[in-house]
Amino acid sequence: MSSRKSKSNNIIHAECLSQVQRILRERFCHQIPHTNLFGVQVQYKHLIELLKRTAIHGESNSVLIIGPRGSGKTMLINHALKELMDIEVVSENILQVHLNGLLQINDKIALKEITRQLSLENVVGDKVFGSFAENLSFLLEALKKGDRTSSCPVIFILDEFDLFAHHKNQTLLYNLFDISQSAQTPVAVIGLTCRLDILELLEKRVKSRFSHRQIHLMNSFGFPQYVKIFKEQLLLPEEFSDKHFAEKWNENVQCLSEDRSVREVLQRHFNISKNLRSLHTLLMLALTRVTVSHPFLTAADLMEANQLCSMDSKANIVHGLSVLEICLIIAMKHLNDIYEEEPFNFQMVYNEFQKFVQRKAHSVYNFEKPVVMKAFEHLQQLELIKPLERTSANSQREYQLMKLLLDNTQIMNALQKYPNCPTDVRQWATSSLSWL
Amino acid sequence: MAPYHTRQKIRQTYSWVGRPLLDRKLHHRMYTEICVKIEGCSTPMHIQVGQFVLIEGDDDENPYVAKLIELFEDDFELHSKKRARVQWFVRFSEVPAHKQRLLGRKPDAQEIFWYDYPACDSNISAETIIGPVQVVALAPDEVIPVDLKNEKIFFVKLSWNEKKFRPLSPELFAELEKLQESSPKCQKSVEAMTKNIESPAWTTTEQVVKRIESSHSASKSRQTPTHPVVPTARKRLELGSLGFPRTPNTKISQPTSRASLDSSGRTKRKVNFSETTSQTKRSHLYRSEMSSPALKTPEKTGKVQPFCAKDDKKVSPKCCMILRTRVPALKTTQINEERTLTPVKGGQRPSVPSVVLKPENIKKREAKEPETQNQATTTSHRIRRRSSLLTLNRIRQQLRVLENNKSDQEEEEFLPTAEVSDSSSEEEEASTPALSRRNTRCMSRNLQPFLKPSMQTPSKTPKKMAKSRTPRCATPQIRSRNLAAPEPASMLEEARLRLHVSAVPESLPCREQEFQDIYSFVESKLLDRTGGCMYISGVPGTGKTATVHEVIRCLQQAAQANDVPPFQYIEVNGMKLTEPHQVYVQILQKLTGQKATANHAAKLLAKRFCASASPQETTVLLVDELDLLWTHKQDVMYNLFDWPTHKEAQLVVLTIANTMDLPERIMMNRVSSRLGLTRMSFQPYTHSQLQQILGSRLKHLKAFEDDAIQLVARKVAALSGDARRCLDICRRATEICEFSHQKPDSPGLVTVAHLMEAIDEMFSSSYITAIKNSSVLEQGFLRAILAEFHRSGLEEATLQQIYSQHVALCMMEGLPYPTMSETMAVCSRLGSCRLLLVEPSRNDLLLRVRLNVSQDDVLYALKEE
């Protein structure tokens, strides 16, 4: 009886949990415009007013939204557009064009894309007809015909705006900004970029036509707000199906946010990056640990996730190396110490290794030179060492100059955690002179 | 307007009053008065020359309004010998919709406009006159008197010339004023105006058309000349029924015998008008001309056939086959489609008519016809049936061919000229979509076979293929909004509107001298009928392009007033081209409307500018952003500057670029020598000039404090002297002002503080804020960089060096030091913001890092905390 009851409980939990996972994953992975904006209300107001003026009054504008990656530029514009489209007067009266500098890598593609998205009359289906020059003059003609009061405003959103500045002659930007500064179809040109020096990239004529409006998103929030964001990201919405479970979950989240170790984890994470996206990664990792048997997040989950986040990727590789390879890396470290970061070649490393094996080592077998060479090449494949020049076929591999891509601290940390590391090797690593 | 509804059902008889005055030249008998007797009404209406009349039109509710200028009898008109010449007025609703806003205000219900468009046909059948009406002329600023607001009185304040509304000229105004009191007969000015347009070149063309027309109406049964419906005067559209007399029983063989050259004086004029006007009219003319035989009996088609047979030589035999088989069927639309397949000329668009040809279209049009057309005979020449129309086109072409063969070579010579003016008028037409919709096409098609290749109509059909699936004739147009933009509500909004760079001011302050120089340069070239080049330089935002536009606008006005010879204006922008050679394509397209590849266009232009000896009007070419036209061989620039040196070219080239020494720097000697030394440089605006510009824009609008304006002017003058910047700052300041005042109804003035905020926002460097807002680790990394720079004394360090510094710093402060991966992430984050300049991260530990900000700035930003 009791087992059946717990079983049915489990089923309910499983359903709830799968829902929780779905909701939260959507929140973390998709850039859903949140209901709350964190610390960007001023910027948001600026943007939405500007968009409204374009949409309602037909005033042309241009603006750049600048902020580091993950600071919520796209979120801001999406949020603004969503609000704009909710206004009844506007939703019918507006055209949107979304471009991305990573997709539209030159003006030709960008023009076709614009024409397609505006669905002008030289578009049939999804195909845009005409040559580059024809498309340009067609589009310009189309935009030129409009006027402030009667034509439908167009909102251009240029993601990765800085990449557009690298197009030849900046033709597209010139024309977009020119339209925004002349009595043609009303447009709002909104550029999103993470580069602070974006204005220096613009050609002087393009720059003159740009209105110099900049909206900066700087992640300018403090830790208390960060914790609040953390909480809001995890809270389940009101309309969650199982009210009881949601209540319990939210209670748990509230507890978590007050937990000391959790706050420590968050503080550490916050110190590394204020980026909300990295918070999402952390929460995502923690969320994967939620199962039927472990239905609520705990501080331990977060700590685990944090450890995963801050893992050094190279240290992980070192953990998987053989003892011989470890020995080679230690030899390289010593060479670096002795010759002050000068590049080395295989022969030098082999000699260093030989010295160690002959004088001191008891646990390490003296391998043949070709075997050591193989291990050396494996390190190169793992990109733990890097040749200074490109490998050519006829060069002697033994004498090719190499550089180690591991820092001393990394090596020492990795060695400490290295499973079953022979003591003499460890000793050798601490001091290059210990074998004397 | 009840009286007009019933009009058509009431029989009216028109009779002359008084003795005729014979006009020997035109073979007319002139009258001064006409008497209209309406059935069932005892008192006849007397209408005198000089009176304002209502004229039957498309819309029974709103008949056309016109002033009667002449009444005469013309024997060569077929169905209506009583003719009248009128000066048209247009109602506001007749103005094309997209031009209506040019008026800038809401028109009064009774307001009409003097139709100052000489190309419009003014010759109508006198029997279309409905009755007299009263028209009162008012000064432009006068309000319409309330007591006169009854429907029978119209007011005229402005004239409309298809381009803009203008106030009535004083003479005209006086004349109209005078007319109000009495009804004098002084229409000389108007007559002179209409006569001006005539040119002898048209006469022959017209005769051809006329003759063909007469042949078409051959086997058609005649309608009574006094029929009230037929000769409706359609002043804009349907000239056909007026322009072409239908001579009864003319045989097809007759046309060749030239229907009395001397006698057709007046019809000549009509065709002149229709030829010179936009295609709308022309095509209508053909259409209605074509439409007459729509219901012809098969015996007629029998006559058609011989011509078709001859057609074989010219056109594809397939077409002819179809003609022969399909014509009797009459309803088929097939002919049309087939016809487009014939290899008439390369420039034709495929499948153009497919949309228009749908039977329901025809039906619709039929349905639109007034139901009064119950008599079969009259209906016949009103229904516009595509198929028959095209058949007739074909026949007409054939006739032309025949006639041309008949040694009348002069006609061939004139046709192309006709087309030249036509293509230009079509360009105008491109902006007049409202009425013309479906008419343009058949016209251009008709004439195409007769054109020299260089004179073809533009292959792009303007503004009509709304549903077309063919992208080649697509209309460049953004869809219009459903809801018009509201007018500015508050003073700040108004100010913002005026401060927008796009708002074109009435005059350009502070550029008077430059304006004068450019104006006199272009004017002198126009007057001398020579060519020349001018180079204009100046940093961005100093009003170069705006000044040239202003000059051109003034010159165009002067040309309209006949102060300078007319000229054609073309504008190209180097930045709006994908490639320098595309400039030829653009120039050619704007000049003649043709499309060609760059190479071909270059050849055609060279031919036009260097070879053609025929006197033509001067071309003014504005080349903006000249430096973009640089090619390795510099052939584009060379050509642009070489053409004006030819005497026949009559080309004035104005070039604009930013750098003063562009000719010396990038041009070869032979190019810069052709450019000549006519140079002008626009200096950046000084603060007082900027102040003046702002002042002129904000005239009578107290939105800014005086100090604020001065501040922004000085700031911008010190920075760049870019007027755009100045305007943008002010615009932003109005927004800030609006935000800062919570109550929207009393926003108050824009103060210095607002402007300072706007300036800070636009020009302050964001690096320091970015550093301040970066995370602890990022700040630590920057510190480590500074430490490493300090240690090495270099401005560059590898990531490894910085990392060890970073670790050391962290250890010193007792903080947990970051892992390498985290540091890498931090480095690339800072690199993506361009706080740091970093090498690609595949170099891993060895990638070199530099600061993109000065070390002092970083120190400052880090210390602030």
Describe this structure in words.
The complex is a heterodimer of chains A (436) and B (865). By secondary structure, chain A is an alpha/beta fold. Chain A has 21 helices and nine strands. In chain A, 56% of the residues lie in helices and 9% in strands. In chain A, the strands form three sheets. Chain A has a five-stranded parallel beta sheet, sandwiched between helices. A two-stranded antiparallel ribbon of chain A has the order 3-4. Chain A starts with a helix and ends in a 6-residue tail after the last helix. With 865 residues, chain B is an alpha/beta fold. Chain B is elongated and about 120 Å long. The N terminus of chain B is likely disordered. Chains A and B meet through helix 2, helix 5, strand 3, helix 6 and helix 8 of A and helix 17, helix 20, helix 27, helix 28 and helix 29 of B.
In the predicted model, the low-confidence regions of chain B spanning at least 5 consecutive residues are 1-9, 183-385, 405-471
Number of helices of chain A: 21
What structural class do you assign from the helix and strand content of chain B? alpha/beta
Rounded to an integer in angstroms, the radius of gyration calculated over CA atoms of chain A is 30 Å
The computed structural class of chain A is: alpha/beta
Quaternary state of the chains = heterodimer
* Count of helix runs of chain B: 33
- What's the alpha carbon Rg of chain B, rounded to whole Å? 35 Å
**Which outline of chain A best applies?**
globular
Main beta sheet of chain A, described?
5 strands, parallel
Helix content of chain A: 55-70%
Shape descriptor of chain B reads elongated
Strand order of the largest sheet of chain B: 6-7-8-9-12-11
Distance between the termini of chain B: 81 Å
Q: Mean pLDDT score of chain A, rounded?
A: 85
The helix-strand sequence of chain A is: HHEHHEHEEHEHHEHHEHHHHHHHHHEEHH
Could you give the count of β-strands of chain B?
Answer: 21
Number-wise, the strands of chain A total 9
* Helical content band of chain B: 40-55%
Protein name (chain A): Origin recognition complex subunit 4
Organism (chain A): Sciurus vulgaris (Eurasian red squirrel)
Function (chain A): Component of the origin recognition complex (ORC) that binds origins of replication.
Keywords (chain A): ATP-binding, DNA replication, DNA-binding, Nucleotide-binding, Nucleus
